[in-house]
Backbone:
């Protein structure tokens, strides 16, 4: 009874959700008396494999080479499937993030394994089988999913599990896997790659998110939002309305058609609270809403609310945080 | 037509998500600066930051 974790990396840096999943896998493996394996796919990812051991893996399968230098769905799915075949796990976790959730789905289909997507909680039943919880209908309902078959796969949303402490003294085995690409995986070639990264903190990995929507009225309206986020060490988020208006890049979009976030603190300024937006942020621990309209739906999910003009309240908040936090 | 394979997962049950611990508390009265200061105090007291 083993657990396999898909370690998602970008340019040799693992996404934190990978370690969160390894921590949970370590906990479950202890209850199953089983081992934890990880798979790392990329080029020059030996350091990531070592880190996976420190975060809880007993064994790491590494698919390393120029064919895997950049994410490609079919190639990465073939590599993931090869790791599943090698590890023969009973439980498999992969991150529910761009560039991994599709790989997991494809590998699950190739391996004929049942998969629960966008999971936020997992446990074991009395027989040691995986039981997963996932929000459906934009978070209005939580579905409990069980599995048929020997293996069970779940893609896991970021910050669903606590970040474990790495233990550099842990030892484990690193096993290179040779994967020969065929069919669609071999037929495609990346001829260029342009990152959409803005250099700002990724909203999905941030402990604090300051988000804004149509209420900022224009791209310059995000200036006080960014300023507050900087003081708090947080990330800037946005509603679809602001992204569609061209005021801020899509990488900041939170909601059903954007990213799902689960920060400790979410400050929503000038966001009315369309259900599509709230589907991406109601997992936040503490939600603060600032809106001129006291009947705005965002207040229904908020812990604290201020009815007012964000252009007055947000700078005042920044000043108050600076004074209290000594920044 | 190829028959659809049997599903490998099952919705064993569904439930409403846990309700928020408490309803929204509006920070009312005073200037924006006073409201902001009161909010920050509450967030610090809650260990939200």
Residues:
């Amino acid at each position: 009874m083993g657990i396999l974790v898909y370690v998602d990396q970008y340019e040799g840096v693992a996404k934190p959700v990978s370690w969160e999943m390894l921590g949970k896998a370590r906990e479950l493996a202890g209850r199953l008396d089983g081992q934890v394996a990880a798979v790392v796919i990329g080029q020059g990812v030996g350091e990531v494999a070592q880190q996976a051991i420190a975060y809880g893996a007993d064994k790491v399968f590494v698919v390393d080479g120029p064919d895997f230098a950049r994410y490609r769905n079919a190639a990465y799915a073939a590599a993931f499937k090869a790791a599943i075949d090698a590890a023969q796990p009973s439980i498999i976790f992969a991150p529910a993030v761009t560039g991994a959730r599709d790989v997991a789905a494809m590998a699950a289909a190739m391996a004929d394994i049942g998969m629960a997507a966008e999971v936020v909680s997992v446990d074991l039943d009395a027989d040691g089988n995986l039981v997963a919880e996932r929000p459906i209908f934009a978070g209005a309902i939580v579905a409990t999913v069980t599995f048929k078959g020997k293996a069970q796969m779940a893609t896991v949303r970021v910050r669903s599990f606590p970040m474990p402490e790495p233990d550099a003294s842990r030892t484990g085995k690193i096993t290179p896997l040779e994967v020969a690409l065929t069919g669609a995986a071999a037929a495609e070639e990346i001829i260029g790659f342009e990152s959409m990264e803005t250099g700002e903190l990724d909203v999905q990995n941030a402990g604090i998110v300051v988000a804004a929507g149509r209420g900022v009225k224009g791209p310059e309206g995000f200036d006080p939002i960014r300023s507050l986020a900087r003081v708090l060490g947080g990330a800037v988020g946005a509603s679809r309305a602001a992204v569609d208006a061209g005021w801020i890049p899509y990488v900041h979009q939170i909601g059903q058609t954007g990213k799902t976030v689960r920060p400790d603190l979410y400050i929503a300024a000038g966001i009315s609270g369309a259900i599509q937006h709230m589907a991406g942020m109601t997992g936040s621990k503490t939600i603060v809403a600032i809106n001129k309209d006291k009947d705005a739906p965002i207040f229904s999910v908020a812990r604290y609310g201020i009815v007012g003009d964000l252009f007055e309240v947000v700078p005042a908040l920044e000043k108050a945080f600076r004074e209290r936090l000594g920044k | 037509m190829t028959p659809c394979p049997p599903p490998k997962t099952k919705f064993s049950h569904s439930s409403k998500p846990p309700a928020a611990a408490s309803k929204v508390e509006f920070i009312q009265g005073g200037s924006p600066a006073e409201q902001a200061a009161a909010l920050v105090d509450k967030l610090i007291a809650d260990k939200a930051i």
Q: What stands out?
A: The CA atoms of residues 43 and 49 of chain B lie 6 Å apart. The longest helix of chain B spans residues 32-45. The longest strand of chain B covers residues 9-15.
